[in-house]
Batch of 2 targets.
Target 1
Amino acid sequence: MTNVYITGIGQTPVGEHWQTSLRELAWNAIEPALTEANLRYPDALYVGNMLSGAISGQEHVGALVADYCGFRGVEAVTIKAGQASGGLALRQAYLALKSGLVETAVVVGVEKMTDRAGSELVSAVATGLDADYEAAQGLTLTAAAGLMLQRYMYQNGLELRDMAGFSVNAHANARNNPNAMFRNTLKAEKFPAAAMVASPVNMFDTAPDADGAAALVLVAADAPPAPQNGMIPIQIVGSGVATDAVALHDRKDVLAFEAVKASTATALRHAKVSNRDIDLFELHDSFTIFSALALESAGFAEAGKGWQMAQNGDIALDGALPICTLGGAKARGNPAGATGVYQAIEAVMQLRGAAGDNQIENAKTAMIQCIGGTGASVATHILAV
Amino acid sequence: MQVSRHWRLQQQRYALVGQVCTDCEEKIFPPRGVCPNCAKETDAQFEFSGRGKVYSFSTVYTAPAGFEGSAPYTIGLVQLEEGPLITAQLTDIDNDHVEIGLDVEMVTRKLLQDGDRGVLVYGYKFRPVVPVWELEPEDALFALA
């Protein structure tokens, strides 16, 4: 059975790239990934993107990026699944390589968010919700997270400050990441005092919208290919995608990420490993409640207790299950459809032993997971060295 | 924006018309093709009473386009007495007074204007259920009418 290896990575810093367009951002990530992998033309290009239509007035991004990167003629497609687009693009590339019809692929997650601001950007991000029955009522993604957090705190007897650990951890881990948007320290006591975005979610609870692009080169091979430029190939050993109701009100339990549960189970089974084998978990911390629920639904904590892992140090770099090891969406920044590919890159860095001061000792197996909307699309992958 | 996009939802937005599954009797809102409980095809209409309780809520300070003038406003997840949850703005109540478990009922209100020259969209919001004897006299007359 053919294996799939990541042989090159590239990323732009996450932030406000006023002078850089969507296609330029994509190339700025793809170029270093190609160089690292010693590749000029892939067989296929998979672009993960959420908002190009709403923000840049540009759809048809697969062909656009292929042409700009000198891949004219190469098969290319855009994958759209809200903020899970990057993970879904990786999944599509993985399936193509496993099929044997494609031997090399480039996956790029790219998002240009800062060409819109204020209410227009809020509306663009809300397109990942149910337009007729959520957004039409004035619901935003942040308010949807607010509905989840409010209920979570109510059911578990928590206050806002009990969630602080997730954001504090993310900021601490971003300090050594030159590509992160926020590299400042966040103190737990400052957390509850931040301005509200959609109560009880405040500025320090939510990950910042930003521009960014991240790219991977994937190769199909029966055995690990020879390292290019001294870079060890990292194998994708597990892959799972699942969906849930788009609207929060259509779920059986608004505090259970069913698609996290299902895609995690699939990926673990596929990789023939269990939760105990996971050395680090790059989860999608768009909001602290997403982190808590992801830990619970992925089987790392009991229902209602995920928040405790942030309070007792379990999620820290030296904890039982480090998460967001280079800042996560909260501090690295959350360029919607690109986030899933940033997570893959960060996991690759950890598995190569190239994460610098944030290196997880003896990291052999990493899980990455990105969440679209309020959990309607979830892609989970397991990477191993 | 075409009027049809809102017009086709008028039964849901004005009268909370959903479905009841003819097999398992699950009450369904909004309508869908297949019962989420038993996976049978659904086609029987059901009109909800419009009464329910606040299951969760969030007050929106950073609003989307078309809602800027309303901010801060509170959106609730309301559990209808027949079972389903519904996402709706809460109205006729101070943002600070909303709490989980509050009894609410559906009313029809303006939701938004669809663009500068677009249609005014009306639909359901939910307000606290206030006993008639606690109302001001003129409101009580209105409520009894």
Note: Chain A has two domains: 3-117+209-234, 128-208+235-384.
Target 2
Amino acid sequence: MFDYTFQWNQALARLPRMLDGAVVTLEVAVLSMLIGIVFAMILTLMRLSDSRPLKAIAATWIEIARNTPALLQIYMAHFGVASFGIHFSPFTSLLIGITFNNAGYLAENFRGALKAIPDTQARAGRSLGMSSLQSFRYIIVPQMLRISFLPMTNQMVWAVLMTSLGVTVGMNTDLYGVTQDLNALTFRTFELFAIAAVIFYIITKIITLGARLIASRLFRY
Amino acid sequence: MFETSLTAADFLFLAKGAGMTIIVTAISVVIGTILGILFGVIRVQLGAILSAPLTFFLDIFRSVPLLIQLVLANAFLGMVLKLQLSGFFVACMVLSLYTSAYCAEIVRGGIDAVPATTRRAARSLGMTWVQDMRHIVMPLATRVALPSWIGLALGVMKDSALVYVVQVTELLKSTQILITRLQEPLFLLLICGAFYFIISFPLARFGGYLEKRWSND
Amino acid sequence: MKKSALTAGVIAAACIAGAAHADKLDDIIGSGKLRCAVVLDFPPMGMRDDKNEPIGFDVDYCNDLAAALGVTAEIVETPFPERIPALMSGRVDVGVASTSDTLERAKTVGFTVPYFAFEMAVTANNETGIASYEDMKGHTVGAVAGTYEAIALEAQVNEWGDGTFRPYQTQADVFLALSQGQLDATVSTSTVAQATVNSGNFDGISVVGKAPFDTDYVALFTNRNEYGLLNYLDLFVNQQVRTGRYAELYEKWVGGDLPSLVVPDVYR
């Protein structure tokens, strides 16, 4: 009945290549998070502005990012936009796709966080002589980031998991891509993907534990 | 704007894919929610230490890419255990557990949001644990949990786009098959995206509305 | 009376033992259904007609095999990377999926004798000016992840030390990327290249020459311990050639010079 022979040594011999892939996966995730946060800030400002077109653009971005599959967004960033003659490498396409997604979700988190900050605080800043931008920058943003720190950690974990979708746009240097390549070569599907799963698990644990550590340092008061 | 060679038969083909997306999502959300409520209540009742194995098990589904979960489950059930399962079954099974892992967190958060004093009051009125759960905890926890649950259900629908790896032809896979034949990637991807959006957007809005309404009183 | 009961018992035992020892060949004949893994974005071997039904050389080959076994064929679409997992998980019985018979893969599955042989061709985007295999040096090239040609091409790019190699998950994605200009050139089987360029679906790409890779022999595959079935499949491939059906199918789907399935200077 159970005549499947596990050949772990065949898969473990490829561990160094997979670890190289894990580094690329982290690279994409971190970059997409950093750029995503910047775009989410811009989207949040656009939403707060009085300009209707700006509001509409921000709302469109956020709703599309939140209401369509990430795989579709990444596929679109590669094969979709190429219909307009715009070409991105697999790495860039994946980065754009995940960043687009991150920015949409983070902007929504920021909006929720802003609601939790009383209006009076910004007004207090203004009455201390700050410009409206200054009061946003020094009073609102730090609190906003603090309130949305947990959702940001979750989004970071999501970003790591989403890198696995890069294979659909020709990416083969990230952890999932490397594993898929090795699988096509050797067909040791279960062993290879089990090792990949363990590496992913460790990465996400490091992120959540690291975030908790940072939070306990930063938000002691 | 678009010249297309998309025929009525192709639309029917896409509709079939969309139907598959909805069926897989519906089955997984229903089973995942039942399991999630069960796991969530068990975790609250047993406490952190006793429920640690369950917590660890559920955490795996939230820490490993869904694509890998599907490939591994498929390889393990089929290649190692030699079970003759359809791709559809494997897809629903993995997505159900995936859903339950997130749902358990939501349920736990909901129960924790019910003040301990309220529950003690219920028990001191002579209510049994079941009565307390049924008449006090459930209505209060649902208010906290429902908006997140709607978000989860929609998330599962979007994530179901990945079940193509176990040979289930859902909406996105159907779209790719048509792209292969018709070579109109942008147009077809837009149709596919529009479908997800039309289902997801109103429900997400409704969830946001509930959240706002219920948090104000 | 006693004797007949004993006989019945022996017959029953033999039946049970027989059932327990049934191999895959018996299972297929017994179930009346042959499930073939076929890659359907690999024209002209496997593709879909305008009703989205599977057609192609491999589809016909599977139908012939089913007819020979006296069962009905069921085509299971499997992307290239999913061919072997689909077999190992019992979702298909036989792979009729243009699979190269590499030694690495033979550690996992059992291959028959070759049932088809591919030459490799270079297809390029017209705007790049690539006119031969060597011209690809320094360009962005790609192929279907995990295939024979992808492995050889990636090795070549590394040897040149110049240019980029990109694997896509499906043959369709490769040609889509090529016609969009995301890839400058690709190496694929010449049959697929010709069929794709002739389909007229892709603008601005053309087959520019041969790739100097060894002939890519492809074989049917099934579980490596199913000798009964493997024997049957070997004979089936042999009969397809002997009866002229192989030539007929080749003419129907590909056309031109019929490739020899005999590897020179060696048995098997």
Note: Residues 8-215 of chain B form a domain with the MetI-like fold fold (CATH 1.10.3720.10).
